[in-house]
């Protein structure tokens, strides 16, 4: 029987999720240049290529931590509801930074598609992205879009069926981290009968001290004690909270992916534009040119 797909738009604040949602839904959810515009989720049903889908616009979130109330709405939605396809909306002009969150989302093991939005902005900054290479590295479809102009939305829906659970991109974990994660994973496996998420993901999040996971997953006293001991051990050896250690590793992995797929070029025309900007917007020279323009206008009129 045909099952309607539930598609969640997830990504960092200001990446263009609501703009994409509006284009899909044909109505106006609130968008603005301020991060944190969407604070609750909106749902719409769309019919594309004869199939009905449910699309959910989630508040922006920088990580799976959930520091802000709006971020928590997004994370809880992802963790509690059945999502068939996770559409990770990324600001292509801030690719290096955005890939960190993409790597976190990949750990959820939900079929995924990456939308590289703001391609116009990336182009303006001279960032050239090798889409095919990024697809190969991430192991999921990557669709370039310019949501404000409705570009790429048809292609996104065409690729829905190609969404797949990403393979894990391993972080360069130290032996100690690996051992502690494995230990917690083994104990969790014995105690948790059913989990929507990979047990290893849960183990890692407990070790990181992730608040959202701690609120959602009930673990007994023994596991809690074990996690606390592991956290203390890592803190002692690395001199940092396990969360910070793992965050740094994810940051390095994201950066190395960025370096493999992106090039920053400044065309000659762009160079000229930047030089002109520098002169015309100069704190002192700028006023001189402004006065000159007024004088020219004055004599012309
Ligand atoms: N240049 C350009 N601007 C875009 C594009 N897509 C969205 N924007 C603009 O980016 C800003 C943020 O867009 P939103 O859709 O509100 O972003 P969001 O991801 O929903 O933000 P939060 O709800 O805060 O998470 C708006 O001013 C949009 O008009 C795009 O492809 N290109
Ligand atoms: Mg929004």
CATH superfamily of the largest domain: P-loop containing nucleotide triphosphate hydrolases
| Beta-strand fraction estimate | 5-15%
Q: Enumerate how many helices there are, as a single number.
A: 13
CATH class of the largest domain: Alpha Beta
Low-confidence stretches: none
Number of domains: 3
Helix content: 40-55%
Computed Rg: 23 Å
What composes the largest sheet? 6 strands, mixed
| Run of helices and strands | EHEEHEHEHEHEHHHHHHEHH
- Spatial strand arrangement across the major sheet: 2-3-1-4-5-7
Bound molecules: guanosine-5'-triphosphate, magnesium ion
The average pLDDT value, as a whole number, equals 88
Specify the overall morphology.
globular
CATH topology assignment of the largest domain: Rossmann fold
Structural class based on helices, strands and sheet pairing: alpha/beta
Separation of the first and last Cα atoms = 74 Å
CATH architecture of the largest domain: 3-Layer(aba) Sandwich
Describe this structure in words.
With 301 residues, this protein is an alpha/beta fold. It folds into three domains: 5-162, Rossmann fold, CATH 3.40.50.300; 175-260, Helix Hairpins (Orthogonal Bundle), CATH 1.10.287; 268-300, no CATH class. The protein is built from 13 helices and eight strands. Strands 2-3-1-4-5-7 form a six-stranded mixed beta sheet, sandwiched between helices. Strands 6-8 form a two-stranded antiparallel sheet. It is globular. The structure holds guanosine-5'-triphosphate and magnesium ion. Guanosine-5'-triphosphate binds at residues 11, 13-19, 31-33, 35-38, 59-60, 117-118, 120-121, 146-148.
């Amino acid at each position: 029987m045909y099952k309607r797909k539930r598609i969640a738009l997830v990504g960092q604040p200001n990446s263009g999720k609501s703009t994409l949602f509006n284009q899909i839904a044909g109505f106006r959810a609130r968008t603005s240049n301020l991060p944190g515009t969407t604070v609750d989720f909106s749902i719409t049903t769309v019919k594309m290529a004869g199939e009905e889908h449910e699309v959910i616009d989630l508040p922006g979130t920088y990580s799976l931590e959930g520091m802000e109330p709006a971020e928590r709405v997004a994370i809880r939605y992802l963790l509690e509801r059945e999502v068939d396809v996770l559409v990770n909306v990324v600001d292509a002009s801030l690719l290096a930074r955005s890939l960190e969150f993409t790597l976190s989302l990949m750990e959820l093991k939900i079929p995924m598609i990456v939308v590289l939005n703001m391609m116009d902005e990336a182009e303006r900054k001279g960032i050239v992205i090798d889409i095919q290479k990024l697809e190969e590295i991430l192991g999921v479809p990557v669709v370039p879009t310019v949501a404000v102009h409705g570009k790429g939305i048809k292609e996104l829906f065409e690729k829905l069926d190609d969404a797949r659970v990403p393979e894990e991109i391993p972080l360069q974990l130290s032996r100690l981290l690996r051992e502690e994660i494995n230990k917690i994973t083994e104990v969790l496996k014995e105690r948790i009968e059913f989990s929507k998420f990979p047990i290893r993901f849960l183990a890692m999040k407990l070790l990181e001290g992730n608040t959202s996971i701690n609120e959602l997953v009930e673990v007994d006293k023994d596991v809690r004690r074990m996690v606390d001991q592991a956290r203390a051990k890592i803190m002692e050896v690395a001199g940092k909270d396990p969360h910070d250690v793992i965050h740094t590793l994810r940051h390095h992995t994201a950066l190395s992916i960025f370096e493999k797929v992106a090039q920053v070029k400044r065309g000659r025309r762009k160079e000229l534009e930047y030089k002109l900007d520098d002169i015309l917007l100069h704190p002192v020279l700028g006023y001189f040119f402004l006065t000159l323009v007024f004088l020219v206008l004055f004599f012309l009129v």
